[in-house]
Design goal:
There is one protein chain. The chain has about 100 residues and is an alpha+beta fold. It is about 20% helix and about 35% strand. It has one domain: SH3 type barrels (Roll). A six-stranded antiparallel sheet has the order 1-6-2-3-4-5. Strand 3 and strand 4 form a beta hairpin.
Length: about 100
Amino acid sequence: MTDNLKLSHARKGDRGVIVRVGDHGRNDEHAMELERRLLELGFVEGARIELLHEGLFGRDPIAMKVDDMRVALRRHEAASLTVRFESVVEFDAAPAPDQAAA
């Protein structure tokens, strides 16, 4: 299962892929400058991302791994990035103990 959400909604341990950079609903100078800076930092479409750290009580800053580098952003900056988050579910090859006896 995957969900597209703003990076600002991510929690520690969340992983995904960037699907959109920038807040395309805003065309003001500040939004365009933020988009340019995010692109320069490596926040590009298709980049893999993992949230590593949240500030106290889930606040600012948030630290993440973007491909092979680590970057910290404030949540209002992270709101300019849309990420397809992945639900990580690991399955064992062996059946569960209660199913093996059946």
